[in-house]
Amino acid sequence: MTARPPVPAHPRLGARLAYRVQRVLRPRPGLRWLSARIEASGPARTLFTGAERQAKQALFGCRMCGQCALPVTGYVCPMGCPKELRNGPCGGVGADGGCEVYPEMRCVWVEAYERAAGQGRAADLRLLHRPADHRRWGESSWLNYWQGRDEGLWGS
Amino acid sequence: MSLRERLASGAFAITAEISPPRGADTGPIERTAALLRDWVDAVNVTDNQGSNVRLASWAGSLAALKAGLEPVMQMTCRDRNRIALQSDLLGASALGIRNVLVMTGDHPKFGDHPAAKPVFDLDSVQLLWTLRHMRDQGALLSGRRLDPPPDCFLGAVENPVAPPAAFRAERLGKKVDAGAQFVQTQYVFDPGAFGRWMAQVRDLGLHERCYILPGVGAVRSRRALDFLWDKVPGVQVPDEVYRRLRAVPADQTAAEGARLAAETIRQLSEIDGVAGVHLLVAGHEQAAPGILDEAGVRVSRESEGHDGR
């Protein structure tokens, strides 16, 4: 989708801290209001999206799919999987937990499972992720999240 | 009796994998179908296996059907987006192909066109969910109505031994929730490890919602053994299996591989919740009858009066 092909990324933010930050970022009336204001202004939106890109790229190797799954994948980005799998690992994971395509890298789902299970969040990985909306690439997933556009992303 | 009916009857089901030819002729599939017809309930027709171009899975499935052997059409997420995948299901169903096996697919890197663009628009769980939705809700992902909806028996794959081991049974659960009615597994060379995974599967009650067919392969040469040992993603050959197949003279590897496969089938068939077996013999399908005979499992076709179990 983007020019950069997916490559597994090791998150630079510990799982415990990531879940703490998540509590602050959870949608609420204040954030909904703020995100609407940011979206209403072109430059503010560009600036905000750029800041999100910088921060999430550095911390999680984010590729800006615009519909963030991090809170339910142990804060390991599934879009770094060379197959962009959003529902768990493929069958090609090596015996050592290495990625099928980049054996020297760890499978993002092996890492996601370890990090989520380590924080008592293994059940998150059972959620069914619906097909991604590829029109969202490059958008700010935080704005989409606070505006409630992610609600159709999970569930059977 | 169809594969679906056979599984529903509680009888031990047998499927085998065949790979379509690299060429514009369905003759090889017809010959393989004639060879396997009396031995298996259905054949899986692979979808550009290992990311190598072959005759299309739907066309190979149609050829098997015409030759009197029920096909399981394999469908990967690697080469087609959601538009093409939904369209293929409609086409397959209209042509009488009922069994569909959904999988992610190997990465193009491993095949004969490593420069290809990988698609992976949907993942295997999403594709299962989409196909079930088409059948049960009579609608496309877009919401548009289908008239008539497709009829299909949906299968999934799982690798019981790949990491993260603690999540593999759960992952099958996701697939069952999404729509999988049967599952065929990656090569099982270690019935003990498979049994541990099956215990987790039973704890989740998945064996009651989905038919489980472990995959059993027959190693036909030392070269094939070495290839499985370190070249096939996700396959784990235990040391003792490797040593056993290496211990016999090279010209007897195939015979020992077949014996091992027959033993594995017998061991797997004893495990609670196993509904059948899936033979991974693509490329050397002629080995299948001997293995099944030695394992003592046969399909019962009323017309031919075989003894079934």
What fraction of residues of chain B sit in β-strands? 5-15%
Can you summarize the main beta sheet of chain A?
none
Number of individual domains of chain B: 1
Cα(first) to Cα(last) distance of chain A is 26 Å
Low-confidence residue ranges of chain B: 303-309
Q: Estimate the helix proportion of chain B, in percent.
A: 25-40%
Helix share bin of chain A: 25-40%
SSE pattern of chain B? HEHEHEHEHEHEHEHHHEH
Report the CATH topology name of chain B.
Answer: TIM Barrel
Report on this model:
The complex is a heterodimer of chains A (156) and B (309). Chain A contains five helices and no strands. Chain A is an all-alpha fold. Chain A has one domain (15-148). Chain B is of the alpha/beta class and 309 residues long. In chain B, 39% of the residues lie in helices and 15% in strands. Chain B has an eight-stranded parallel β-barrel, surrounded by six helices. In chain B, strand 2, helix 3 and strand 3 form a beta-alpha-beta unit. The relative contact order of chain B is 0.14. The chains are: A mainly alpha (156), B alpha/beta (309). Chains A and B meet through helix 4 of A and helix 5 and helix 6 of B.
